[in-house]
Structures are given as structure tokens and as C-alpha cells.
Write a structure and sequence with these properties.
This protein has 829 residues and is mainly alpha-helical. It is built from 37 helices and nine strands. The protein starts with a strand and ends in a 14-residue tail after the last helix. About 1% of the residues have low confidence.
Length: 829
């Protein structure tokens, strides 16, 4: 067996012939990507495309280190299946890093051929070539695709699968009917069934189970065929296949009627494996016959076994699933009236609702949600107006977002919205709940404009329809505050969050997890308003509350957000050593609970790298900054907010260690990209421009540095005012530019005003205030004002001794009479 073997269906022990096609497939797959498609005359399915791929996987498994099966008829399943391969490649599982991140990490590992370069991916039942365009990992391994779509013939090498040859049909039936079948009888049966493999499987299974002779089977088959033709019902499936299927169903119905009831039910799931535990939900309100069957586990086990013996279902006993061929599902549905279809579809929706865990945010529930994913769209549960059905839809979206698969979440949301708004109207609570998930998902994707438009439209609607203090209205307001931060409107966000916290406290109390989440957001607002002490105190109280609760009272993600936010606030207060201690603990917790690829882990790691840089512990800071940036680039696009923040963190680190050329290159690219996400006026854009200015001055280009800092200062003052940390950071650096240009009088004037404001804002011993004082003392000395310079120098030296200590690099730069640089690291929104 290969080192990794996963999700490949069980081999058909009766597989027959196809040797020429298998040889062609083996020869063609050397070109890396090969598609197995039906012959043009048999595009309806049932010709054995999937069985060909299964047989290839088993027959040539010794040639591969990894063989992985991926259901591809729904794009959302492709990512989930790829993500499930992650642990086998030594990568964090989807429960830790999220589906989207895990899938991207898998593709990257396969492209590199690390740790395995002999791999085989099988994408079963792919539809459009465009669906897999960005998914196929062009690396050292092989890709096999099965599809009913002949468009693949113009995209990759293809092997067309036709019905059996007559010789293959006869051989197959001789294997399938254990008591033996006369070759002549087998030939006549094959002729009646058009040599279609799926029809032959049905016929062989029925004869094997009942002992029915070929003559009797042919008589019944012809009678049923004539009946179908007389009915004149249009069908895209061959009459012979429909007749063979009908005989199997009729025979099993006589033997065990409950089996047909279960088969009808399974016809309204998706064609992917159905978890057996979905039929172990006796609390679900079902029709009497199905409820009775599900309530009797012994009877249910027999029914499932009979479906397998009659070849109407494929059973995976170890995996506890059953799977119905999509053609059999379609034939089963075709035999029911519209009313019966609606009834059975409703039962499937109730079964899915009963199987779905209550909390989609809990990583321990993600495996079960992943097994549901393939049945959401085919079952039509998104079209149901029943409360339990809509709850499943909302929770599957929340699961996808929590696990990091925001693209799939967005796709499902768009699908559900079309029908929900048409049937229930824009103001229905279910629709508003879905709109909230849509806004949150867009915000996580970095689509801040779209998120803000939704918040502004539906927040007033929710408040009017549900009331201002309804939980959904409050959550909309919390998202709206995040949109304000994304627009750079920090003060407005703070005012709204202060009001929101008051309302949460009045409704839920101070110790409710929803209140704690709001405290976390308000603390972020306080930090963005330069009130770092208040931010730290709020988070410290929230963190202690989280620790005082039992492990089930606060979800792990909320705890991590508070913990990492506290470490950031402590750093921004200037307590670097304590920030490192808190940050190291928070990062270790994030890696353990969520894995190194999860977006919250990456944000925690980025903050820790900054703290190490300030401390300083430059070797560890660089290693972590490079790792976080590389993971962000791999998992998100270059214009994603997390990627941009990681890039700026790394650029600042590179400048600190003296690699100014690399720092400038990365910073210039990042500064160009920031306005695409936040718009040209956002404070983060100007703060990053200030970082680039430092790098130009370090490269002995103070003219460009001055111009950039003046532009940044002009951009920040209208929105934040002069007495803001970001504005004063730029002013501190601009004074250094003026000094580098020999304009000491202007440098001193700017430095004096900036120092006065910084001391009032952050305190006289905050590191930024000390940097400004250190620079000003040097500029005063250069301007000839030696008495004032000496006094300020003595004050600053004493303050440094009390805070950072005499061995800190900042202190050494100060003592050498050189200028200190104040850089900017954008926090998360």
C-alpha cells in the first residue's frame, strides 16, 4: 500500500476487462493530467468511469506514495477533501488551520513534491474544466479525472469509456452470478441490457440474491421494458437500465419493503457517502414507516445490508457510510410523484438537521459538518422554509467561515439568498441572519466596501424589524463597528462600541461571552484611539474573566482573541518584556489549539514577532516574521489585509537588521497595495508610507524621506488630529529627516512640539516619547542649544535606565548621539 491511501472507494471484486483502456490510461497519465470520460454515445453515466478510476488506483498503487480520492461534482467538496489530506502530509489539519488554509497548504506541498513526489489525485465526477483550473497541482505527481463532460477532451488527455464489449459483459456476469451462468444466456442478457455495466451489475445482483434463472429474468425484463415504452414517459436514461433497476426494486420490495423506503430517502441525499449515523436520530420527527425503521437498529442494519447485496447501494462498513449511484438516485426520484418527492425531501432535511451538531464554531464538530457538506446542495435543503432546515444552512455557512473556507461560505450564502429573499422577503429574520453572515464573510475576505454596504443597509432593518436590543441587531452593530475601523473612522467606532457594550451588559451581564467579545472590540478601538492603558486594562479584566470560567463557558477563539489582544496592548504601552511573555503563551496556545496555519494564529504570531523585535530578540523575530509572511502569501492573495500586515512587519524587521534594500523593495510593494483594500485616505496607508520614508533615510535619501513623511502627516492630521500616536510617530520621523538635511532649527521646533504632545498622550517614559526626546537632544546640540540639550539628555538617560535598561539597542543609539526611528505596525481591524 502507499504511504497515504485515502477515501478511495472499495474495489469491485467483479471488475472485468478494460485492459486496453487501463493500459492507455497508464501510458497517458505520464502526461500528469488525464480525464476518463464516457463515449459520446453513452454520456448518461453507468458505463464505469468511476470503477475504471478505482481499478487504476488499486492496480497501480505500488507506483505511488500517496493516492487520494476527491469527489468533485461540487466545488465546495474539492477543498474539503484536499484539506483532509493535510495531516498525512505533515500539515496542520483543517480543524486547526481551517479548510481553505489546509487545502492551499496541501496543494503547495504536492506542487513541491514534499514530503512525497509520487502522488495520485483522483477527481471523481468533475463537471466544468474551469472548476478545477486553480486546483490541479501541477507537480511531480499524477492527476486522474472522471467526468461526464466532453469539454475535458479539449483541455487534457482523455480516455473514452464505452459500454462493455460483449465478451466483457459475459465475463462480468460469470463473475457476478456465483452459481454460474451459461455463456449463451449471459450473451442474451447482455444484449437486452445494451452491455451497460451498471445494468449488468443490477441484473447479476438480483439473480445472485434470488436464484432467478436467466430465462425468467429476461421474460420479466421484456415485460417491464414494454410497460415502460407503453407509458411513454420521457427519460434521459436507457429503457433497459430503467427496466433492470425496476426489477431489482420490485424484488427487494417484496422481500423487505422498508428497504425501498430507505432507498427512496437516500435518493434525495447527495451522491456522496451518506453517514450511517444520519439514520440514527430517533428524536427526529419523521413519517411513521421511516421513523419505525430508524428506531429499530437491528432492522435498519438488515435493510442497509440488503441494499448492498442487491447492488442498490455501496457500503463502506469501516467508514459507516452508504452511497447510492447518482443514476439509481435519479431513477428512484423519477418514479415518485411531485408530492411524494416533496415529502421525502422534507424527511431528508429533518435527518440532516438531526445529524448536524449544535455548535458550528467548535472545531470538534467540524468533521461531522464536513460529512454533511456534500448533501446540502443536492438535497435542496437551501430551498426549504422550515426553521430546522434554515438553521442547518446557517450553521454550515458558519462552519465554513470558522474553518477558514470563506470562499465556499460566500458561494453558499449567495445560493441560499436568492431563494430565501424570493420566498420570505428581505426583512425575514432568516434572511437578515444570512445577510449578517454574508457581511462577516466579506469582511474576512478583505472586501471591506461590500461588507460596509451590507451593514449600512441591514442594520437599520434589523433594528426596526427585531428591535434595537435583539441579539441579531446587536451583532449587526458589532460588525458595523468593524466596518468603521476598516474605513479609518476610529473615533466613531469607539463611540458605537461603547454604546454596544452598555447594551450587551444590560441584556446579558458582564460575564457573558457575547459581552466579552464586545469588550475585546472596544479595546481595539481604544488602542486605535491611542488610549493604550485603557485598552490594556479592559483586556486584562476580560482575560481574567475568561480564565475564571470553566473550559466550556468561553470558546477557544474568543479566549485567543482576548489573550493576543492583551499582549498587543501591553506592547503598545511600552512594556516589551511582559508583551513577549504574554505573546509567547498566546502563540503556543494558538498553535496547539488551531494549528500554525489558522488566520488567528498568524495574527498572534505577527504580534509576537513585533514584540520580539522591540525587546529585542531579532533572530526569533525574523524567523517568525518570515514564517508568518510566507504562510499568508500561500494562503491568501497578496492584497489580503493579513498578508499586507505581515509584509509590513517583515519589512520593518529587515530594516532593523540592516537589510535596507530588501526592506525597501517589500515596503514599496506593500505601500502600493494598501489603498486597494482600505482606500487612499485610511490611516494605515499613511503609517506604512512613514515606514517607507524611514527606509529611504536609512539609504541616505532624506529628500524622499521628507517628502513621504510630509505627505503622510498631511494625510493623518485631518482624520486623526495632531495628538494621535500615528500622527506623532510620523512627526518624530519627519524631525529626523529635517536634521538629516541640516535644517536643525526646523527639526528642533517640530521635535519640541511633538515631545510635548507625546508626553501628554502616552506619558513621559513611553518608548516613543523617549525616542522623540533622544532625537531632540541630539538636534538641540547640533543647533547650538547645548544647555537645553544636556538637560534633556540627562533626563532621557535616566528614564531609559528605569524602563528599557542600559543594554537595549535604543539606548545605545541614543548614547551614540544617533537618531532613533519610530516605525508603524498595522493592527487587525
Amino acid at each position: 500500500m502507499p504511504e497515504v491511501w485515502g477515501r478511495v472507494p472499495q474495489r469491485n471484486k467483479n471488475f472485468t476487462g478494460r485492459q486496453e483502456l487501463l493500459d492507455r490510461l497508464r501510458d497517458g497519465i505520464a502526461g500528469q493530467v488525464t480525464a476518463v470520460v464516457p463515449h459520446a454515445l453513452h454520456g448518461m453515466g453507468g458505463v464505469g468511469k468511476t470503477q475504471m478510476a478505482v481499478e487504476y488506483a488499486y492496480r497501480y498503487r505500488s507506483e505511488y506514495e500517496v493516492v487520494w480520492w476527491i469527489p468533485a461534482d461540487q466545488p465546495v467538496l474539492v477543498r474539503a477533501s484536499l484539506a483532509s489530506l493535510a495531516p498525512s502530509l505533515g500539515l496542520p489539519p483543517a480543524t486547526a488551520s481551517g479548510v481553505e488554509d489546509a487545502a492551499k497548504a496541501v496543494l503547495e506541498a504536492l506542487r513541491r513534491g514534499e514530503p512525497y513526489d509520487r502522488w495520485l489525485l483522483i477527481f471523481d465526477n468533475a463537471d466544468q474544466p474551469e472548476d478545477l483550473h486553480d486546483i490541479i497541482p501541477h507537480g511531480p505527481g499524477h492527476v486522474l479525472i472522471t467526468s461526464r463532460n466532453h469539454r475535458w477532451e479539449g483541455v487534457v488527455d482523455t480516455v473514452a469509456v464505452d459500454v462493455f464489449s460483449r465478451k466483457e459483459s459475459v465475463e462480468f456476469l460469470k463473475k457476478r452470478v456465483p452459481k454460474g451462468i451459461d455463456p449463451g444466456d449471459a450473451g442474451r442478457l447482455a444484449d437486452e441490457l445494451g452491455d451497460l455495466p451498471l445494468a449488468l451489475e443490477q441484473a447479476g445482483a438480483l439473480q445472485a440474491e434470488t436464484g432467478m434463472g436467466v430465462a425468467e429474468y429476461l421474460r420479466l425484463l421484456r415485460e417491464r421494458t414494454a410497460q415502460l415504452l407503453a407509458e411513454g414517459k420521457p427519460s434521459e436514461y436507457p429503457v433497459s437500465m430503467t427496466a433492470a433497476w425496476g426489477l431489482s426494486v420490485a424484488s427487494l420490495n417484496e422481500k423487505l419493503p422498508e428497504a425501498i423506503e430507505l432507498l427512496r430517502c437516500c435518493a434525495f441525499f447527495g451522491p456522496e457517502p451518506i453517514p450511517r449515523d444520519a439514520f440514527s436520530q430517533p428524536r427526529v420527527a419523521l413519517d411513521e414507516r421511516l421513523a419505525t425503521l430508524i428506531g429499530d437498529p437491528i432492522r435498519l442494519s438488515r435493510v442497509v445490508g440488503e441494499l448492498g447485496r442487491y447492488a442498490l447501494a455501496r457500503l463502506d462498513i469501516p467508514g459507516r457510510t452508504l452511497q447510492i449511484h447518482r443514476l439509481i438516485q435519479a431513477l428512484m426520484r423519477e418514479q415518485l410523484s411531485g408530492a411524494e418527492q416533496d415529502r421525502m425531501r422534507g424527511q431528508v432535511h429533518r435527518l440532516l438537521a438531526g445529524y448536524a451538531p449544535a455548535d458550528p464554531l467548535e472545531p470538534g464538530n467540524w468533521d461531522r459538518y464536513a460529512s454533511l457538506l456534500g448533501h446540502i446542495t443536492p438535497s435542496g435543503i437551501g430551498f426549504s422554509e422550515r426553521p430546522e432546515a434554515r438553521d442547518v444552512c446557517l450553521n454550515i455557512v458558519r462552519y465554513l467561515a470558522a474553518s477558514g473556507d470563506f470562499a465556499s461560505a460566500r458561494t453558499l450564502i449567495d445560493t441560499f439568498l436568492d431563494d430565501w429573499t424570493a420566498t420570505s422577503g428581505e426583512e425575514h429574520p432568516d434572511v437578515l441572519s444570512l445577510r449578517l453572515e454574508q457581511s462577516n464573510t466579506l469582511r474576512e475576505l478583505g472586501s471591506y466596501d461590500e461588507s460596509a454596504k451590507l451593514s449600512r443597509k441591514y442594520l437599520p432593518t434589523a433594528e426596526r424589524v427585531l428591535g434595537r436590543d435583539d441579539d441579531l441587531s446587536l451583532r449587526f452593530l458589532r460588525g458595523f463597528c468593524a466596518d468603521l475601523r476598516a474605513e479609518g473612522r476610529f473615533q466613531q467606532a469607539r463611540e458605537q462600541d461603547e454604546d454596544l457594550l452598555r447594551r450587551f451588559e444590560e441584556k446579558y451581564g458582564t460575564e457573558d461571552v457575547r459581552t466579552i467579545r464586545t469588550v475585546n472590540n472596544l479595546a481595539l478601538d481604544l488602542g486605535l484611539s491611542s488610549d493604550y492603558i485603557a485598552s490594556r486594562d479592559r483586556l486584562h479584566e476580560a482575560y481574567q474573566l475568561c480564565l475564571s470560567f470553566g473550559p466550556e463557558a468561553v470558546d477557544k477563539l474568543t479566549l485567543l482573541n482576548v489573550w493576543s489582544g492583551l499582549a498587543r496592548a501591553v506592547r503598545l504601552c511600552g512594556d516589551y518584556a511582559e508583551a513577549c511573555d504574554l505573546g509567547e503563551d498566546a502563540y503556543a496556545y494558538a498553535v496547539e489549539e488551531f494549528g500554525p496555519e489558522h488566520n488567528r494564529t498568524l495574527r498572534t504570531g505577527r504580534d509576537l514577532s513585533i514584540a520580539w523585535r522591540r525587546a529585542p530578540d531579532l533572530d526569533r523575530a525574523r524567523e517568525l516574521a518570515e514564517d508568518v509572511h510566507a504562510r499568508c502569501v500561500r494562503q491568501f492573495d497578496l492584497d489580503h489585509p493579513d498578508t499586507l500586515a505581515a509584509a509590513m512587519c517583515l519589512a520593518n524587521l529587515l530594516r532593523t537588521v540592516g537589510e535596507s534594500d530588501a526592506a525597501v523593495e517589500l515596503a514599496e510593494d506593500t505601500v502600493r497595495r494598501y489603498p486597494r483594500i482600505y482606500g487612499p485616505a485610511h490611516p494605515y496607508n499613511h503609517g506604512c508610507t512613514g515606514n517607507l520614508a524611514i527606509m529611504y533615510r536609512v539609504q541616505n535619501d532624506p529628500v524622499t524621506a521628507r517628502r513621504l513623511n510630509e505627505e503622510a502627516l498631511a494625510g493623518l492630521e485631518p482624520s486623526l488630529g495632531r495628538d494621535h500616536h500615528y500622527t506623532l510617530t510620523i512627526a518624530t520621523n519627519l524631525a529626523s529627516d529635517l536634521a538629516a538635511l541640516g535644517e536643525y532649527g526646523d527639526a528642533v521646533a517640530l521635535g519640541r512640539g511633538t515631545l510635548r504632545r507625546l508626553r501628554a498622550l502616552l506619558g513621559p517614559e513611553h518608548p516613543l516619547a523617549l525616542s522623540c526626546a533622544a532625537n531632540l537632544s541630539a538636534d538641540l546640540r547640533a543647533a547650538g542649544e547645548k544647555e537645553e540639550a544636556e538637560k534633556l539628555f540627562q533626563e532621557t538617560e535616566a528614564a531609559y535606565t528605569r524602563t528599557l535598561g542600559s543594554d537595549h539597542p535604543d539606548v545605545k543609539v541614543f548614547l551614540d548621539g544617533r537618531h532613533l526611528d519610530a516605525d508603524f505596525d498595522p493592527p487587525p481591524i
